[in-house]
Design brief:
18 strands, six-stranded antiparallel β-sheet, alpha+beta
Length: about 425
């Protein structure tokens, strides 16, 4: 119920009614995506921390309205606030479909969007990406991909009695009432998941699978749950992914898997699910596995729509050099932000590109060349069409308003394009 005023830019935010920051954000940062999906105001005002227009309302109930270039704030009555909360907050509990009895390691060609219930949304959407072809070529996705289903997460908890701890924790009255108790109890649970020994046979099977699919030794283990990319709940940035290196005694496969398993019980993930009335016991963690990118030349996020003027067809692209994050940018870093317009038939032959900002660590040059931007835009078109017509079939809205959130990289000396993720925006 709080509107948070921040002197700077936080990496993450809990479930709140709105946020006012003293610095601007990239449009596709986690803060902005979370606010977009929660439908809560996200306002940047450079003087916010000391501005009397904001300060006079500290610790008071307020009405806040934010538009693209202005805002209005005033005191609100308790009756207004309660009516607003009642109209916005979910009221019915959601029990997720969770099929946790499917063991084995799943190749991508065995999966589809319908597989969310046992491998999670990230892995299921990745499988859909691999179905896409353009000019006879397959989607350029990371090599060596396969999925670890929910079965192994559930078995790890059962083997060490942690499933009973979860049940006790969720029923504990102090856990429900006290923020500090939730913080401590969830940390204990995560630590217990990480320190409990993983089934050695399962670890050997994962390593064998990795070695059979590619020669890469740096491997990414990516969180994939049944509580993300569902209607009314995006889940962006709530869970964590980790890298293992074959033969490395520190960055082991076992450690990476257990840390991903544990990340379903971060405080931010728990609180977000709780706010949206999602049954905590029905949430489960799977893992998408593929090669990692220790030598990336660029990384970025694209929305297959124009977030500024939705009915002017185009793609919104944020991209930065090397591995400097776009979704969680370090303080002081700005990325390329551009619009690639698609409203004319020759959009790829004579591209119309509008740069809104440039990276401040690339000597004033665009991070992507024109040819690289066009190649990305062509694949964005293929992704948008595939998910609109073959997956979601959301024909109640026009194609121009159907948008996907796509993560991509340019890797190595050849700057090869890789599409890492596609999810509804």
């Amino acid at each position: 119920h709080d509107i948070l005023v921040v002197n700077g830019l936080p990496i993450d935010i809990p479930v709140i009614a709105g946020i006012i920051t003293s610095v601007f954000q990239t449009p596709l940062s986690h803060i902005n995506v979370l606010s977009h999906n929660r439908k809560t105001p996200n306002m940047a005002l450079k003087t916010a921390w000391t501005d009397p227009r904001i300060q006079e309302f500290q610790n008071k109930l307020v009405y806040l309205s934010v538009t693209s270039d202005s805002f209005a704030i005033r005191e609100a009555s308790l009756e207004e606030a309660e009516a607003f909360w009642k109209s916005r907050e979910p009221s019915q509990q959601i029990v997720l479909l969770c099929e946790d009895d499917s063991s084995g390691l799943f190749d991508m060609d065995m999966l589809s969007h319908q597989s969310i219930s046992f491998v999670g949304a990230k892995a299921a959407n990745f499988a859909e990406l691999m179905k896409i072809r353009m000019d006879g070529k397959a989607m350029p996705v990371p090599e060596g991909a396969f999925a670890i289903p929910f079965y192994y997460y559930r078995e790890h908890l059962k083997q060490h009695g942690l499933d009973k701890y979860v049940e006790w924790m969720l029923q504990d009255s102090l856990f429900k009432a006290s923020y500090s108790c939730r913080l401590t109890s969830l940390r204990i649970l995560r630590d217990s998941i990480i320190h409990a020994k993983l089934d050695p046979g399962f670890v050997r099977a994962v390593e064998s699978k990795i070695r059979s699919l590619s020669a890469f030794t740096s491997i990414r283990f990516r969180s994939s749950t049944n509580v993300e990319d569902i209607e009314g709940f995006n889940g962006a940035g709530l869970y964590e992914s980790y890298t293992a290196v074959l033969g490395d005694r520190e960055k082991t496969i076992e450690k990476a898997i257990k840390r991903v398993f544990a990340s379903i019980w971060t405080l931010r993930g728990f609180e977000e699910r709780e706010y949206f009335k999602i049954d905590q016991l029905s949430a489960a963690m799977g893992i998408l596995v593929h090669r990692a990118f220790p030598h990336e030349e660029a990384n970025g996020v694209a929305i297959t729509g124009n977030i500024y003027y939705p009915y002017v067809p185009g793609y919104t692209i944020n991209v930065q050099v090397k591995d400097i994050s776009v979704v969680q940018p370090p303080p002081g870093f700005t990325a390329d932000l551009l619009l690639f317009y698609t409203y004319n038939t020759g959009a790829f032959e004579n591209p119309a590109i509008e740069y809104i900002s440039h990276s401040n660590v690339n000597n004033g040059e665009p991070v992507l060349t024109i040819d690289e931007t066009v190649e990305l835009a062509r694949w964005l078109t293929a992704i948008q069409y595939h998910f609109y017509y073959n997956v979601y079939r959301t024909f109640r809205i026009p194609l121009v308003l159907f948008t996907m959130d796509v993560e991509f990289k340019r890797d190595g000396d050849t700057r090869k394009l890789y599409i890492k993720q596609g999810r509804p925006y």
